[in-house]
Amino acid sequence: MNFSWKIDEQSLKAIQSELKQFDTKMKKVIAKDALRKWSKGVVSQLRNNMTWKEKDLKKAIKVRIKTLRKNRGVWIGVGIESGKKLGEGGFDSYWAATKARWYNDGWTAYPKGRKSGRKGRGWRLGLRKVGGRKVWQTKFFEKTAAETLPLLPSYIIEAVNTAIKSQGKL
Question: Which of 23, 68, 31, 61 lies closest to 160 in space, CA to CA?
């Protein structure tokens, strides 16, 4: 699941004008500070938008902040940790990212009453690409992004103001 959103142009211009007074190293510090504060709110909102009681999956939400090479910017990723098994282990364990996709995008069950024309182990092969009813589809990632993205410019401006105050004290 890859979603991406952009900040509106007006907020972006206000942020760029504020950041002109700082050197590159300080800009990275400001951006990382603002993104850390924003990501805490995103993670809590993401957990609230999950409409089921799945403690292991809520723990699998991770945040990654990276500085791009040659001072091109800062990248942030918020989502379910992939490559991690949840549950009790053995037969009962499951992949966190797969389970999150089932809830977010939904899954299609095999339609009732349809016969595949096959017997034994391969009975599902005859039902490929035969649509059933979509189940769940909570879209908790999209809801969270729509709710929290407008807050990001305010966090960046707040980080700029704290940087200005800290420079004034030095």
Answer: 31
* pLDDT tens column, 103-118: 888 877 777 777 777 7
Structure tokens of 50? Answer: 């999950």
Q: Of 32, 35, 31, 37, which is closest to residue 19 (Cα–Cα)?
A: 31
Q: What are phi and psi of 63, to 5 degrees?
A: -125, 135
Question: For the residues of the chain, what is the DSSP string, one character each?
Answer: --------HHHHHHHHHHHTTS-HHHHHHHHHHHHHHHHHHHHHHHHHH--S--HHHHHTEEEEEEEPGGG--EEEEEEEPTT-EESSSGGG-EEHHHHHHHHHH-EEPPPTT---S--GGGGGGGGTT----EE----HHHHHHHHHGGGHHHHHHHHHHHHHHHHHH-
Are the CB atoms for 50 and 57 separated by under 8 Å? yes
Report the distance separating Cα 151 and Cα 143, nearest Å: 14
pLDDT at 34: 94
Estimate the crossing angle of helix 140-148 against helix 24-49, to 10 degrees. 130
